[in-house]
Amino acid sequence: NAGVTQTPKFQVLKTGQSMTLQCAQDMNHEYMSWYRQDPGMGLRLIHYSVGAGITDQGEVPNGYNVSRSTTEDFPLRLLSAAPSQTSVYFCASASRGGSTSYEQYFGPGTRLTVT
Amino acid sequence: GESVGLHLPTLSVQEGDNSIINCAYSNSASDYFIWYKQESGKGPQFIIDIRSNMDKRQGQRVTVLLNKTVKHLSLQIAATQPGDSAVYFCAEIYRGSYIPTFGRGTSLIVHP
Q1: Which of A76, A85, B26, B76 could form a disulfide with B63 if both were Cys (CB 3.0 to 4.6 A apart)?
Q2: Under 8 Å CB-to-CB from A39, ≥6 apart: which residues?
Q3: B20 to chain A, minimum CA–CA distance in Å?
């Protein structure tokens, strides 16, 4: 299994540009999520999905869109990049195995700079 | 709003010592707690978890303690090694939710 993969690893955008961060998992996990991590901070939830066709907003959703057309893929779209979106973005997938276990795996991250 | 937080942003220990990382949570509706380790340049990695109906859970060199009375969570690392140097996050999952909410993290520095 490749686990959770993210592309690209690094990206520089100009203010106003749009782009899509890709995320894929091969573990057949039902839950997927996007977080952003700023220096000295924890991870803040942007959007999440509990299954194909179902998405919802997290703590900081403004400026981002997501879709979940398949179980495997969960792309994050930046509609019009702003310097405040400079951050490291992590995608994660998870499976809740009944009432006793929870497994969440993170991708390696995408480091985004908006100038 | 209610959130997960940490008492100490940085913890420095000597190799071989035991480390204790603390976390305070305020959401009494959380029923699942997870500790993650994040090494520089990498995504967080699951270490150990605990359900709200448990007080203690042990793994390999790690123990998580949950005190629901004072809403406190701790991660104990035995015989800390230089490879344990990383940022550690606690996270909680609210009852009925499936996505963890993270605290700010504690940086653990292990001196040889």
Answers
A1: B76
A2: none
A3: 19
Q: Pick from B45, B98, B105: which is nearest to A31 by CB?
A: B98
Cβ atoms of B91 and B45 closer than 8 Å: no
Tokens 């005190």: give the residue.
Answer: B67
Residues A46, A91: Cα–Cα separation, whole Å: 10
**pLDDT in the model for residue B8:** 46
Share of chain B above pLDDT 70, in %: 93
User: Residue B112 corresponds to which tokens in the numbers above?
Assistant: 């040889």
Residue A43's identity, in one-letter code, is L
Half-sphere exposure of B20 (CA within 13 A, CB side): 7
Q: Test A102 with B34 for CB contact under 8 angstroms.
A: yes
| N- to C-terminal Cα separation, chain A | 36
User: B42–A94: do the CB atoms touch at under 8 Å?
Assistant: no
The confidence band for B75, taking pLDDT boundaries of 50, 70 and 90, is very high
